[in-house]
Specification:
The structure is a single chain. With 418 residues, the protein is mainly α. The protein has a single domain, classed as MFS general substrate transporter like domains (Growth Hormone, Chain: A, Up-down Bundle). Helix content is 79%, strand content 2%. The chain contains 12 helices and 2 strands; from the N terminus they run H-H-H-H-H-H-H-H-H-E-E-H-H-H. A two-stranded antiparallel ribbon has the order 1-2. Helix 7 packs antiparallel against helix 11. It is globular, with a radius of gyration of 21 Å.
Length: 418
């Protein structure tokens, strides 16, 4: 066994469990803060575009983190990066306890700083957890459990955040979230084992990735944009404007994310399973690359339906659930492929590259969503979402075709070399 990988030879299951628990706790807090902030700020008269700018800071600093997180992990090790990310999450929650106790300009600056810290913590722990699982995964379903569970807990966080805001208020809600991530920080410090990559990568090597990984990252950016243009900031504010209560809004979004998290491992299992009756084959094993385009095209039908049914509460609820079912199918290939396509010797760098490109979709979408909503309402956000999902489907078809051509070429090369 190679030096540097021996640390994973003992108790791999426990390490996966500890990493997943702490990661999921951080995403619970992320989901809770994601619903608490827009609902609270909109009730005190802050416009949607200004709330969107706060979230842009969050996504922008997440983007910067993705660009440099791989090098940080590559040089200082996985455990240190994991603990630092939980520290940022903790500060990003406790900081709100001191909010609204000074001038308005101080409040605005503090909120943006805290959202930026949350963005850094979110992306650093995401990249570190994925890098850990690149070495710890023993079958193709483990990444689905990690990332699907993350989205399920984020959904719980959305519901929990709305309940916390209703019963505890703004400050105590964030105090509770800070305590949770602080306890996870102590746990990670005590039980996580470290890993350091043998090969150190310079900044010039950041873009030297598998070409298929680059296409996959652009597809994920389009998927993120298709979601964040309407489902992150505009939809909770829109639902509140048409009379839906805070807890009901949290319930709708939470149910959607929980379905999203549940579908991902199920989709991974379904893609690689065979279905047959006696000798008649109903379904053979599929390639992950082949379902990206189909699921993206199904996805764009949801914002299209929402465009025509946006005033019906029941229709909105069902469409949010349906979107997250198809989003789970569309995301499942990414959970596995971005780890498979990452080089083990530079896993943190390749994963950071993938997440950096993906993050561009979030930043652009979140920034645009506030202005689209203020100018054209929820309808403008939905139409922009449809365009992004269409691009995702086209690129998914291109990737699938390229992967199959690469496989055929590899087989031909092997036959010629014999």
């Amino acid at each position: 066994m190679k030096e540097g990988f021996q640390i994973f030879s003992l108790n791999i299951f426990s390490q996966r469990r500890y990493i997943a628990f702490c990661y999921w706790a951080s995403t619970f807090c992320e989901g809770a803060s994601r619903i608490i902030l827009p609902l609270y700020l909109s009730t005190i008269g802050i416009s949607t575009s200004k709330i969107a700018i706060i979230f842009v800071f969050y996504e922008f600093f997440g983007l910067l983190t993705n660009m440099y997180s791989g090098f940080f992990i590559n040089r200082f090790g996985y455990k240190k990066a994991f603990i630092v990310s939980l520290f940022f999450h903790t500060i990003a929650s406790f900081g709100y306890l001191f909010l609204f106790q000074g001038p308005v300009i101080f409040t605005a600056i503090t909120i943006n700083i805290l959202r930026s810290l949350r963005g850094i913590g979110k992306e650093l722990i995401k990249t570190t957890s994925s890098a850990y699982f690149r070495h710890l995964s023993e079958n193709h379903l483990h990444p689905h459990y990690l990332l699907g569970g993350k989205d399920f807990l984020k959904g719980i966080g959305l519901l929990g955040g709305s309940i916390l805001l209703f019963y505890l208020g703004f400050h105590l809600s964030f105090g509770f979230l800070g305590i949770l991530t602080f306890l996870c920080l102590i746990l990670a410090k005590g039980v996580l084992k470290d890993h350091k990559e043998i090969k150190q990568i310079s900044f010039s090597g950041f873009f030297k990735v598998n070409h298929n990984l680059m296409i996959l990252a652009i597809i994920r950016a389009s998927l993120y944009a298709g979601r964040d243009l309407w489902l992150v900031i505009p939809i909770p504010i829109y639902l509140q404007s048409i009379g839906m209560s805070k807890i009901m809004i949290g319930t709708v979004l939470a149910c959607g994310l929980m379905v999203f998290g549940t579908v991902q491992p199920l989709a991974g299992f379904f893609v690689k399973s065979r279905l047959y009756i006696r000798s008649f084959v109903i379904k053979s094993k599929w390639y992950y690359e082949d379902i990206i385009a189909v699921s993206s095209f199904f996805l764009l039908l949801v914002p299209l339906g929402m465009y025509f049914l946006k005033t019906n509460f029941l229709a909105v609820f069902l469409l949010v659930i349906t979107y997250n079912i198809f989003a789970g199918l569309a995301t499942a290939p990414h959970n596995y492929l971005h780890l498979r396509l990452a080089n083990k010797e530079r896993a943190s760098i390749d994963i950071a590259f993938y997440k950096t490109i993906s993050q561009f979709g979030k930043v652009i979408a979140v920034f645009s969503s506030g202005f689209l909503y203020d100018s054209y309402g929820i309808s403008g956000c939905l139409l922009a979402s449809i365009g992004c999902l269409f691009v995702s489907g086209i690129l998914g078809a291109i990737l699938s075709n390229k992967v199959h051509r690469d496989k055929i070429k590899k087989i031909k090369d092997m036959s010629l070399s014999k």
